[in-house]
Queue: 4 jobs
Job 1
Amino acid sequence: MYRYIPNLITVSRLVLTALFFIVINLQTSATNFPLLMWLALGVFVLAIFSDALDGWLARHWKAETAFGRIVDPFADKILICGAFVFFSCGKIIPGEVTLPVNMSGDAATGIVPWMAVVLTAREFLITGIRGYAESRGIDFRAQWAGKIKMMAQCSAIIGVLVCLALGTVLKSSMVLNGLLIARNVAIWITVVVTVLSAIQYIIRGRQLIHEQ
């Protein structure tokens, strides 16, 4: 029975992902906006924790299944790419909310549409390569570049949520400016690492095709 626990945790992450999108898309008052962002942050961290937990349990109990191999990365992609898409459109910030001048326009989240496109394109590409490899019985699990990419993406999303939560409270301050710089650095690291990991997977996929 315990062997089904990793899959149940994976399914719960899909539920948390849906809840995360609902929370960040709620149109609320300026007073409640910071609270919603903190709530979204809590849901996101819980979802990321569940990602690490289900993988560890599946390996520890030797309970890896086809369901987990398909749904687990799917849930990750929906959570991360969906967050970047939502943040890039800017509509998550209600009209009543007033942010500091250094968080106006695209600077509100620091994420612009082309960044979301890059992340989503990378995931489509890797999914295609992985599907081709595994259809031929070749193990094509994530390597170090993919794991670093995931860490960078999570750091960027956490940075965006923290800055949005504090933006209406701290206004223009040295603390907020420092957080915005850290957030922007995390976002750009995410973009660079995403591109580099895509290149690594392309090279690896090309080698596999030639070997076949």
Note: The mean pLDDT is 86.
Job 2
Amino acid sequence: MQPKAANPVIEFRDVSYSVGDTQVLSGFNLQVQWGETLVLLGRSGSGKTTTLKLVNRLLSPSAGEVRVRGVSNAVGDVVRLRRSIGYVIQDVGLFPHFTVERNVALVPRIEGWPEERIRARVEELLRLAGLAPDIAQRYPHQLSGGQRQRVGVARALAADPEILLMDEPFGALDPLTRDEVQREFLSLQQRLRKTVVFVTHDLREALRLGSRVALMEAGRLVTVLTPEEFVRSTDPWASAYVRAFGDGLESTADRGTS
């Protein structure tokens, strides 16, 4: 395990982002610490995915600065930056003509890892993701939704990135599969301690998976709280989320409960 960094792994400094006359993010300031799962929570259009894409320079801010590992991500090789950050999206994005093994091994092969090391890494990640070894030779269309999502996570972790970006990764799964994959994610995170930025609009998922929850509304950061603080918050936006989801949220904030 790496030693905990004294400075934030990711930092947004007064970041704004516009598309034409539309202000998507405004005056956004946030720090993400080593080894935490920081959940970006908000309704559609609140700026969550935009915030995520600013980290690996899929988008660039209109103003302000995004720093990754203490350095502005506006400088340096963008390809190198992206290869050093795992990225998981809702529809997984696996290459349909690649086997599971080839999908997971993609970045290590691009990086020039020896084949023996790649094979060992693929086997290790499939095991960590709760997948049987024989799945390595299957194609994405031969997998269930939950299996594809696990493979997507394994691929994002293949080159052992310090940072993992996850954009509504479990949103398309049925409730039972979603619960199972969330459990797998919690187990993985307990073992690997990656720095994760996780986008969701689902409060229960945010409370279950997050070390802290950053609530966003209309392109602005409303508040950042632990799951336990969020449930008890008197902030009107946080309280509105809690009321919308009804009773039983305090137990949801407990890791490992459904």
Note: The two ends are 28 Å apart (CA to CA).
Job 3
Amino acid sequence: MKREVALGLLISAVISFPLLTSSCSGGGGGENEIKITSDADWIGYQADSGEWKTLSPSISSSEETDGIKTYKFKANNKYGVAFYCSEDREGNIFYFTKSELDNFTFYCNEHFNRYTVSGTHENMETGDYFAISNVDSKASLGLLSVSEIPDTTTFTISEVPEGKWDLVSVEYSANGDTVSPYKVVIKRGIEVDNNITGLTVDFLTGSSFSPHTFDVLNGEGMAWFVSENNTITLTGIKNDEINKWFQINNITNANDSYLFVGANEDSKIHVESHSATENGLGDITINLDNISDLTTGSFDSGTKTFSGLDYTPSSTSPNLVGYSISLENTNLNWDIAISKNWLGGNTSYTLPDFPSVDGFPSGAWFNDFTTIHISLSAVMSNVDVKNLVQTNPKLDFDYPVLKEGTFEIASQEVQ
């Protein structure tokens, strides 16, 4: 039985904030010590306002597994750290204060064993119904482009990263071009450390959904359910034809959450996360016009300096936490995250002169800054910087899996 099912949504203005691409955690360092775990081909660091230097693995760390090494350096107050991944020709630079973050991990490659999880759906409704099960976010994102309703009741999810996950299975009702979630079953705390077969999803034990309005004024959006162990499942969209999200009844807990994202072509993004047990959660409206425009940023290709880092959020936006810069041409991409605390009272930022750093890879930096595409973003949030950073490197997802919190992004093309 085939249907052309329109579950897809294109958000054309999504901006990649570099803080959301690494795996980080705070605490645990010695006095003034910054600890880095990474497989990057080159790592550089700047202690406080000193010179950039190539970072060598810590002498105290003799273990190396799958190219992952441990690095340590000291900084009194603030620091910069840079990673370059030669295979993808991508670089990232992070500027934090030590109190914000002193211990984090950045991976160029995947370092987790991956397995297959399979089983059978039982007691599904007859007629135009189909079910989809997912374990991790990568599997669940397949919901965005469903073009065929499967005839079989079996499911197989491949490439599941090793770790503890929740299996979330959703039964959908298909009525012509209208597709709605009908029942959901959640199996929690599955340890994926081998191929898992024979799982049974019995929809007799499932819970129903309550539909609510999901509106993004002057934009489009998506809604996700995020389970306790970070399985991410699409639960709603807002575009020209649909404006609904579906709340799961009865079987959620305080460690589950709902994530709502709105974006528009004016390079504005609003993300909010709510506990799944929050009282009164129902209709959701995101007004992207409430985010102030970013118009003051500029870049001088001669001095390689960004100016105008004095963005003022609107009265309805969270506090400014920092800036994101993206530089790219056809051969190379660098993303830069700068915390507001690192900037202090400064409203300008100058790019590092990486080619002059001993050990920096040849060809890993831009030769001509007049020919690269540059965008600047201001990032607002009501949570700490470390909570904006992706805390689980197994997840393949564009947004941090916040259990509760809000952040916004306003961007402009600088060059």
Note: The first helix runs from residue 137 to 140.
Job 4
Amino acid sequence: MDIEVASLRREYSKEELTEESVQKDPLGQFSSWLDEAIGAALPEPTAMVLSTTSALGQPSSRVVLLKGVSEKGFVWYTNYESRKGFDLEQTPRASLLFFWPELERQIRIEGFAGKVTVEESRAYFNSRPLESRLGAWASHQSSIVASREILRRQFEEATERFADGEVPLPPYWGGYLLKPESYEFWQGRPSRMHDRIHYRKDTDVWIIERLSP
């Protein structure tokens, strides 16, 4: 390679993060940082890396979009028959990672993941643009496909099938909810002495502690 990747580096110095400055509730802290990311007009503030693990222990990561956050947890939607769907069926634990380089911040969240109700999935599915709903019927996510042309034909078939614009929720499509058991808020600092504030749940109480960078 012509690029010396080992020499690529940048200094972080925008903000600091202390045990005293964070909110006692990690969801409140998350919401505050998400609001700042949205306010900074970042290109994809709700993009998050979802990491899952197969029954054989093989990890897998991909970027998905956060579609709901509340006291219950963090929600995203997908095809249940995709690789992440099979992973979560076998190992219902996952981690989420938000990375906002412009703010020199990242948030890591770990916990148990399970399906949301069919009613919740249907409500969100019906709110999606028509093309996105048709795409959910046209694509067998994560399966091998011989060509782009086949995908195009499958989309056309779905368009013809639901020509009246009434596109129902596919039986294999819906949402997941991750219930957090731990959070880590990372703020870049000079000399790689980053701030890492960790929340872990002890019964019903969130314990706040600092981690070494």
Note: Residues 11-129+170-211 form a domain with the Pnp Oxidase; Chain A fold (CATH 2.30.110.10).
